[in-house]
Amino acid sequence: MQASDVLVIGAGAFGLWTALACLERGMSVTVIDERAPGAGASGGPVGALAPHAPERWSAKADFQLRALVSLPERIAALEARTGLATGYRRIGRAVPLADAAQRAQAEARIAAAARRWPGARMWIEERAPEAWPLAAPWGLQRDDLTARIDPAALCAALSVAVAQEGGRILPGLRARRVGPGWAQIGARRVRARAVVVAAGWRSFALLAPWLPGAGEPEHGQAALLAMRPPPEAFAIQARGLWIVPHARGVAVGSTATRRRADRRTDAALEAVIGRARALCPALEGAPVIRRWAAARPRAASRAPLVGPVPGAQGLFAATGGFKIGVAIAHAAAEALGAMIARQPHAMPDEFLPRNLPRAAAPWRRAERSEAPGA
């Protein structure tokens, strides 16, 4: 393998955006992935991009909001340079309100959103449009900030952009170990000025010598239904459930099972599909055309884990996106690219590996139980 300034391990959203950020700074970049770009947690069908609840604000919530606001411009540039669509659109969201307590909470949340979400709006509607019906006896909490994207299409476009900038993406290669400025790939130790570990939940095992107990996998399942949503369709969020209209169908998901890392779907997904159809009657009878499962990287802090690994100069983490990874990956990668280039950056302190709280999570049991996906 030819040496590069930067070796990125993992071709998901974090890895590919990081590769692009480094290439745009004049560095040479190689990306490896044990399967193919977007084959892991970044390839799911749901693609909901939603802001954090405005009444519970934090540095992570603020970073996520700024990432959501900046994403349309980044996506427009990506689509223009590659000629590939990513499915991005700001479609808004509805949260059905089931009782008076939820209605009161939504009314209080509107005031918080007005303070925290500049340029966006939250409001209450009494009923859903007839073409996109929704069971909501106490109305709907709506916002116009939530967007959707096709994660697999995003990874495909990023792969093309990386190649256009001179980067190399090598599928079918897995890093067995990493260290300060090197990675063990097969029998060969490959060196680079910066090694970025962006291998999803497997990153935690690679980084364990420096960051023990950094995180664990959380299994998720989702499905795509064959249905042409009406033009006014918005994303729907309920407890443990997303319904997201896309140009190619309607995605529903997802389950959440900690310390499980296989790629199988099971009865839990069928239950999610049933809940989605009960909540949104327009989905009744729409056939399932894709079932998907993968493990998301859940860091011990529940925040992304992005930045230099303490005690290992030249080694960087880019993982832990969990449920917001696709939404923030471009912004996290921009900050990480600046770190690698020794430039000023805007990474929140709580994302930095040196600030990770130690947690003895026995997640390695999930790796031993991994089986091929169905």
TrEMBL record:
GO terms for molecular function: oxidoreductase activity. It holds the Pfam family DAO. One of its GO terms (cellular component) is cytoplasm. Keywords: Oxidoreductase. Gene3D superfamilies: D-Amino Acid Oxidase, subunit A, domain 2, FAD/NAD(P)-binding domain. SUPFAM superfamilies: FAD-linked reductases, C-terminal domain (SSF54373), FAD/NAD(P)-binding domain (SSF51905). Residues 5-337 form the FAD dependent oxidoreductase domain. This is Glycine/D-amino acid oxidase. It comes from Oceanicella actignis.
